[in-house]
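FAQ

Q: What does a record look like?
A: Structure on top, sequence underneath. For example:
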């Protein structure tokens, strides 16, 4: 089981790096998708996924005792997957202002989501067991250095994940656009 958590840790770090580059730099800073009429729906799907991510981390990655919480987390994963499909379907119209989604950004999306779902599958593999033909969540603390590393990484990313969710929500409103514009100009001048 140790190897599952070492792999989970690595893929989680890779996901965070790519998602931060894609979400913060490309979507919010460079293209400002939240401001563009044709990209509004894409920003809303990103907002929904940004809200779901810390909830998934909490209920699936960090949860050690609550079977109900774990099941809620699995339901959130299914919702996240559905929203990802809707997001991917809508990107052609959303990126019409730039002649479509650039191939290199498509590749960033592909790898980012592959890393995201790889972590989820690895954690589910480690936290679920089959006994006498029934599926159970492994409850109680899981020991080992690899698990400790994974939990530390998951705990450390939570503040940033929550901040990103709140930023996406804020930028979904016109008042957020004005605030962003004011501070973006100040950041560019320095």
């Amino acid at each position: 089981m140790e190897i599952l958590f070492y792999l989970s840790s690595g893929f989680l770090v890779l996901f965070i790096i790519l998602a931060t580059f894609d979400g913060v730099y490309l979507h919010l800073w460079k293209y400002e998708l939240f401001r563009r009429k044709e990209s509004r729906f894409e920003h809303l799907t990103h907002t929904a996924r940004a809200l779901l991510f810390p909830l998934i981390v909490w209920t699936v990655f960090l949860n050690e005792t609550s079977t109900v919480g774990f099941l809620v987390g699995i339901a959130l994963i299914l919702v996240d997957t559905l929203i990802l499909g809707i997001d991917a379907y809508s990107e052609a119209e959303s990126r019409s202002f730039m002649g479509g989604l650039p191939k290199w950004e498509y590749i960033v999306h592909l790898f980012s989501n592959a890393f995201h779902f790889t972590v989820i599958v690895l954690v589910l593999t480690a936290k679920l067991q089959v006994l006498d033909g029934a599926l159970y969540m492994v409850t109680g603390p899981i020991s080992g250095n690899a698990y400790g590393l994974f939990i530390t990484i998951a705990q450390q990313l939570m503040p940033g994940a929550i901040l990103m969710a709140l930023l996406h929500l804020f930028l979904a409103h016109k008042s957020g656009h004005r605030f962003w514009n004011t501070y973006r100009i100040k950041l560019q001048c320095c």
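Q: Is there anything notable about this one?
A: The beta strands are 128-131, 134-137.
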